[in-house]
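Example 9 (inverse folding). The structure is encoded as follows.
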């Protein structure tokens, strides 16, 4: 079984997602940005989704989580919920 430790930020606007990505890349704290801007329930945990299993997330995000580079800020990625910024902390396979 594949699992990953992931954190993310969800916003409705692509331009805002791009702005937040640049702030994080410039050294702003991911968790603080998530708490201030993310519309996901994970915002109160600094964007931490915790451990997720393959197939647990919406398909476009799930594919990225289990194939994208680890420890890289990905996005914005569009889903039916809005635009995501995503960091895959690491993946495991049991």
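The amino acid assigned to each position is listed next.
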């Amino acid at each position: 079984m594949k699992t990953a430790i992931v954190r993310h930020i969800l916003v409705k606007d692509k331009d805002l997602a791009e702005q937040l990505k640049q702030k994080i890349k410039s050294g702003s704290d991911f968790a603080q940005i998530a708490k201030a801007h993310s519309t996901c329930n994970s915002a109160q945990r600094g964007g931490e989704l915790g451990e997720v299993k393959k197939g647990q997330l919406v398909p476009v995000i799930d594919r990225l989580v289990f194939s994208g580079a680890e420890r890289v800020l990905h996005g914005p990625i569009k889903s039916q919920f809005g635009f995501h910024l995503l960091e895959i902390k690491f993946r495991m396979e049991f």
